[in-house]
Amino acid sequence: MSDIYVVMGRTGEYSDRSEWGVVAFKNEEAAKQHVEKATHRAKELEATKPSQWEDLQAHLKKNEFDPNMELDYTGTSYYYMAVELRP
User: Fold this and answer.
1) Domain-by-domain residue ranges, the chain?
2) For residues 23 and 12, what is the distance between their CA atoms, to the nearest angstrom?
């Protein structure tokens, strides 16, 4: 059996936290690189928000590495995990 590597996004904290699947890779290095790219782009987008109190989604531009990116006052982070791939 082999593994696939699932890139996950998350934002928020406690009961207000959101997590979502972004993309999966057969190659761990590809997943790691995607996490780095998505994180870098999310930080760029977060830096363009006018203030933490305004509607962040209204100022959110598309993250080409995560088209479903969510953003709140905690920012957005990414990670990957290995998941067993069965036939």
Assistant:
1) 2-85
2) 20
